[in-house]
């Protein structure tokens, strides 16, 4: 598994932000797969990045210190060491977001077409079913929007 796939989404996005804000002040290439760096955060953190064995990567920050966690500082170092990966990450996330939005639009349009074909009684039965088995916020939201007490 790669660095990005082992990190949380939050660590990836915050690491990208740190990279873009030039918080990685010093990167040393140890060999083809290993790097060390200093990353500015609430204080300066020493980072060791092992691309070949990501779980061997370390950081002195409270989240990662003594744990096998890929933190934002490790991600920022990764993006600084291999800048094309930052661009790849952003492009992939943009593509995934677009695909998700297309999927949501498709579901919405299917639901509208289905609803338009339903009889009044079928609509009433479905609404009652939603109130009985759906999440509570649906009922609360309906009441608020329609000023029902």
Characteristics:
4-stranded antiparallel sheet; single chain; elongated; 149 residues; 4 strands; alpha+beta
Explain what the structure shows.
With 149 residues, this protein is α+β, with helices and mostly antiparallel strands. The protein has two domains: 3-83, no CATH class; 89-145. The chain is 57% helix and 15% strand. It has six helices and four strands; from the N terminus they run ααββββαααα. It has helices spanning 3-6, 9-20, 72-81, 83-117, 120-133, 136-145, and strands spanning 24-29, 34-40, 44-50, 58-59. The protein has a four-stranded antiparallel sheet. Strand 3 (44-50) and strand 4 form a beta hairpin. Helix 2 (9-20) crosses helix 3 (72-81) and helix 3 (72-81) packs across helix 4 (83-117). The longest helix has 35 residues, at 83-117. It is elongated and about 70 Å long. The termini are far apart. The mean pLDDT is 91.
């Amino acid at each position: 598994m790669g660095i990005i796939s082992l990190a949380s989404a939050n660590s990836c996005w915050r690491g990208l932000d740190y990279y873009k804000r030039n918080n990685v002040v010093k990167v040393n290439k140890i060999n083809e797969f290993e790097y060390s760096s200093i990353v500015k955060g609430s204080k300066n953190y020493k980072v060791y990045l092992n691309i070949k064995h990501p779980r061997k990567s370390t950081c002195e920050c409270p989240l990662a210190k003594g744990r096998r966690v890929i933190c934002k500082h490790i991600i920022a170092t990764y993006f600084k060491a291999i800048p094309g990966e930052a661009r790849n990450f952003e492009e992939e996330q943009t593509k995934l977001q677009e695909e998700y939005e297309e999927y949501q639009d498709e579901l919405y349009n299917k639901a509208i077409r289905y609803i338009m074909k339903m009889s009044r009684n079928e609509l009433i039965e479905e609404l009652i079913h939603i109130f009985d088995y759906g999440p509570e916020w649906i009922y609360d939201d309906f009441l608020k929007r329609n000023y029902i007490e």
